[in-house]
Write a structure and sequence with these properties.
This protein has 152 residues and is mainly β. It is built from 1 helix and 14 strands, in the order ββββββββββαββββ. Strand 9 and strand 10 form a beta hairpin.
C-alpha cells in the first residue's frame, strides 16, 4: 500500500496492490481519492488498468517518474513472465500505461521468474528478486536525468 497526492489537490490519496477477492478473481490495483474532509475516500478504478486482472501485484509505489510535478505509479507483479507496469500521471486521474519489460527486472541469469519487492527513494529504484522466499538477486537503478535510469 502507498499514499500520495495523485490528483494534485493537496490531499493524500491511497493506492493498494491487486488482490484475490472472495470469488477467487484477481482484482486490479485499487485507488482511493481523499475527498478532503479528513475522513472519507472515494474509490477510483483506473480505466488504464481494465483487463489487468491477470496477475497479482506485489507492490505499488508512488513517485514523480518524469519530473513533471505529478505523481506516477510503479506496480510490481509476481506471476511468471508478467511485466511490471509504470503508470504516467496525466492529471485528473488519467494515466498512461507503460509495460516494463527490462529483462533484468524480471529474470535472473538462469531465467528464473522473480517476485519483486521494490522501493523508490529520491528517484532511485532498488529491487530485490525473491523466489520461493529466498533472495535471488538485487538490482539498483539510479536516475540519470528525466526519465532515464541506469543500472549500477
Amino acid at each position: 500500500m502507498a499514499w500520495g497526492d495523485l490528483d494534485g489537490d493537496g490531499d493524500e490519496d491511497i493506492a493498494a496492490p491487486s488482490f484475490v477477492n472472495n470469488a477467487g478473481l484477481t482484482v486490479p490495483p485499487v485507488f482511493y481519492e481523499n475527498v478532503g474532509d479528513g475522513v472519507n475516500f472515494t474509490r477510483r478504478d483506473l480505466s488504464v488498468l481494465t483487463n489487468e486482472n491477470t496477475s497479482v501485484s506485489r507492490g505499488i509505489n508512488i513517485f514523480d517518474y518524469n519530473n513533471d510535478g505529478k505523481l506516477d505509479l510503479y506496480i510490481t507483479r509476481s506471476d511468471n513472465n508478467v511485466a511490471d507496469l509504470l503508470l504516467i500521471n496525466n492529471g485528473s486521474w488519467a494515466f498512461t500505461k507503460q509495460v516494463i519489460t527490462i529483462l533484468s527486472l524480471l529474470t535472473m541469469d538462469l531465467g528464473l521468474p522473480l517476485r519483486q519487492i521494490m522501493t523508490m527513494m529520491e528517484k532511485q529504484i532498488f529491487l530485490l528478486g525473491i523466489l520461493r522466499h529466498r533472495l535471488q538477486g538485487v538490482s539498483y537503478f539510479k536516475n540519470s536525468g528525466g526519465t532515464s535510469y541506469t543500472e549500477t
